[in-house]
Amino acid sequence: MALFNPRIVSALRIVPALLVAAQVVSIHSVRAAAPGCSQTLVDGTTAPATASYIYPSQPVVPFYQWENNNGYCGEVSMMQGGMSSGQWMSQFNARLVCGTGLSQSGPGGWCGAHRNHANYNAQLLIEDPGTGVTGPATYASAAACLANSRLAGSTYPYTTGFHAPNVGIAGYKDYMSWIKSEMIAGRQVTIAMFYKYGNEDQYDHEVTVMKIGTNHSPADSTYYDDDVLYFDDHGVYNLVDGKLRKDNPAIPFGAGSDMKGCTPYVFGYKFSSLPLTRAAAKGRSAPAYSILIPGMYPTRTQTGADGAKGAALITGHNYAFSIGGAIDKSAGGPFLLPVRLSIAAATASGGAPNPKDPVAAWQYENSMIGTSLTGDSCTNDPPSNWMSPLTLEATIGGLTAGVTYNLYEYDFSGISGTGSAAALAVPTANFNANRALATHATSFTATGPAYTQTVTRTSDQIVVFRAVPAAAP
């Protein structure tokens, strides 16, 4: 994946990372602790109202990313899909689960040998190996990361297009149509975007789509210029006293009693305003975010090239992945019930309470990895203070009163191994038959459409919930 180069920006040094049936949920206007915190203050634009909206089946709650080690936007995007599917893992473990063996910043000694710049291949990137857009080096691809996380996912077919070749404005429209179709199917979608202050040829940042506004049928996946894309940028842009700031501290600006700073999180743009070339995306009048017009210009890639741009030119593409829930390959299934996980109460780090963010609530990790507030740290060391306690609430939906169900919990202290050996030891079929793999099992008879269970852990731990009818295999 293309990466933002922090050396390019002097006036504004914000380091972005690289990155379930429709449900009607209202997303209110964003207003953080500081007055008037919104997209308007970032780039002067506002998203137009539309007649209706398309949502994933589980609402997306903004989550604040770590900025060091080139950023964790892809990891956070996958974490959001994981929480919507009943599982928690830190951004630290979300990088390890990809199985590259590169840890957080690259192989041992990488930081010191590369002027404190992390290896881009360590982070979660979207494009697949062996498709003509990457080099030969190992890197974390979305497909591998999702499979090891036991999440059902798919990627945009960037080499062929969805319904039309992925070239020019027609290709961009095809890309947006795929995003709409995945959202209509209820899936959570992560997309690749240009960041105004980035310099990479294909994308600088991965963001999670929250909803799509439309004046047409919400069941119609056709591209329309006046459709509106809303997404969570994971807190990359932030403001203090109404001005853009260069630092991204572990606790988001605007959280708790902070009345000077704020973090907008939510951005919305008409489809017709997003497609740009790389050069135009950096222009003075460009919006904060935009999307590559694919196939128009030869590009270079850092992905699979030991963290440096490869020499060979490739065709520029649009990239995205979607998450449709936990994997269930049970014969006669799937049988899994939807399980949503959330951080349900205040957390603490090193004994100090972490304040509530007005938009993301407690959906952030303090302390961040590394030590730099501006995103300059390059380290393989874990955070010095994991969140403890971390209270997680699992809500199982789709229940029928009077039916008995089994809720399985799988707990892990960490992740090791490379390739598929890094995968979570969680069943992908026949959950009742594999109950011995669970750390805890709870049998309950539903009295209504939902059931809730709360657990308390530390943020370095991994906890996974799966729920099936007691009569399932």
Task: Name its key features.
2 domains, globular, nine-stranded mixed β-sheet, disordered N terminus, four-stranded antiparallel β-sheet, alpha+beta, 473 residues
Lay out the secondary structure:
Elements: H1 39-43, E1 52-54, H2 73-83, E2 87-88, H3 91-96, H4 110-113, E3 124-125, E4 140-141, H5 142-148, E5 151-155, H6 168-184, E6 188-195, E7 205-214, E8 228-232, E9 239-240, E10 243-244, E11 261-262, E12 266-270, E13 275-276, H7 278-281, E14 289-292, E15 298-299, E16 314-315, E17 320-326, E18 339-343, E19 348-349, E20 352-353, E21 390-396, E22 404-412, E23 440-445, E24 451-457, E25 462-469
Parallel strand pairs: 3-4, 13-14
Antiparallel strand pairs: 1-7, 2-25, 5-17, 6-7, 6-14, 6-17, 7-8, 8-12, 9-10, 9-11, 15-16, 18-21, 19-20, 21-24, 22-23, 22-25
State the gist of this model.
A hairpin with a 2-residue loop joins strand 9 and strand 10.
Question: Could you walk me through the main structural features you see in this protein, from its secondary elements to its overall organization?
Answer:
- The longest helix has 17 residues, at 168-184.
- This protein has 7 helices and 25 strands.
- 56% of the residues are buried.
- By secondary structure, the protein is an alpha+beta fold.
- The radius of gyration is 21 Å and the shape is globular.
- The strands form 7 sheets. Strands 1, 5, 6, 7, 8, 12, 13, 14 and 17 form a 9-stranded mixed sheet that branches. A 4-stranded antiparallel sheet has the order 2-25-22-23.
- It has 2 domains: 6-326, no CATH class; 339-469, no CATH class.
